[in-house]
Amino acid sequence: MVDYDPFSPEVLDDPYPIYRRLRDESPVHYLEAHNAWALARFDDVWNASQDNVHLTAERGTSWPYLVTKAIPALPNLNHMDPPAQTQLRSAMMHYFMPRRVRGLESRIRGFVTDCIDEFIDEGEADVVTQLGQIVAVRVACMAVGFPESDAGYIIDLVKRFLAREDGVEDMTESGVNAFAEMIAYLEGLAADRRSFDGEPEHPIDILLQAEVDGERLSDALIGQHLILMLVGGTETFPKVFSTSVLRLAQYPDQREELIRDPSLIPAALRECLRYDMPTQFLMRSVKKQCEIGGQTLREGQSVMFLYPSANRDEREFDQPDRFDIHRVSPRILSFGQGVHRCLGANFAEMEGKVLLEEMLSRMPHYEVDESRIVHDRTEFIRGFQSMPIRF
Ligand code: HEM
What we know:
Elements: H1 9-13, H2 16-25, E1 28-31, E2 36-39, H3 42-49, E3 55-56, H4 63-66, H5 84-93, H6 98-103, H7 105-119, E4 124-126, H8 128-144, H9 151-162, H10 173-193, H11 203-209, E5 211-212, E6 215-216, H12 219-234, H13 236-250, H14 252-260, H15 265-275, E7 282-286, E8 290-292, E9 295-297, E10 302-305, H16 307-310, H17 345-362, E11 367-368, E12 374-376, E13 383-386, E14 388-390
Parallel strand pairs: 2-10
Antiparallel strand pairs: 1-2, 3-7, 4-14, 5-6, 7-10, 8-9, 11-14, 12-13
Helix pairs in contact: 7-8, 7-17, 8-9, 8-12, 8-13, 8-17, 9-10, 10-12, 13-17, 15-17
Protoporphyrin IX containing FE (HEM) binds next to helix 8, helix 12, helix 13 and helix 17.
């Protein structure tokens, strides 16, 4: 019998051994204490992510919304089902398409080189706080339309929102306050922009003009949509980037290949995304009874998609625990799948590519000081708060 508790110290330290046991022994696993099912295998997560008949995102997609109900699941894009979700998402899609993102590559490179110029003469830096986080926030601001001058404030808000305390299976009080502050800030942004009546310039303008069920969105609701883009773009990305930097230091032969041939970087980044997916799970709830892997999931129960487990499923990937930049993996789950597949994926891939290109060109033989890495201990987004390098 596998005893899986997403908050247990073993899982917080290293979830991969228990994920393997879940895949082998209890792939559709019931967590009695929370009336929730955890899906551990690739195929189950992949298929359930595309099932909008039996599963709904409307009650929320993460623990504080669905399980502890610490905060209400207001209907942002991620908490909507088709067809309303599809309509709104399509209206914003244009701003997230590869063409627009490619057109912004030189500005993204500018953000990266600005950061690197700040510390290049020091011979050391923190790749999370001095590079990944700053670039992620500046890119999110540019992509979504947040004022770039607010970047520092935004980093602080997101950090407070996502912070967890050891032994507390919920948001911290300061997290709940940061959430309220974030909503107020974003509502204010929406309200200020209402008087703008020109051609839409970014997703905020689309939200201001959009109608759902024949009604314009309120400032409060636009705030909810923006919070999603803010958190999505600023917390996960630095985690992916810093673990990529670590893996390349741990596999110097593969790093040498990338230094010699930077055109391999996008494929290498895909392997980094597969190998170290930071988001431990997102959720749905059952709106119509269904069966997965021989288990019956009943109306009202929650369902967890264990993405990092799925990305290391030996049924999908050959030797999944081997890090290999030459691996060909047609399907990965790092950006989710189905109608809620990450809207910012093209931005994330572009940021990652540019960051690795610049790092491997300007400080190719950096060393990671693994003894000084600071880990985030949260059930939700796993990764590093701080990771010092020398070069
Ligand atoms: C490496 C960085 C990133 C990772 C690993 C990531 C991961 C994900 C995942 C797994 C989902 C699926 C959610 C679900 O199915 O419930 C998602 C959705 C989303 N992501 Fe990302 N994301 C990243 C970067 C970004 C960026 C840069 C942005 C925006 C600028 C963004 C905006 C969004 C939005 C708006 C959604 C919701 C889409 C919807 O519900 O229709 N993400 N992301």
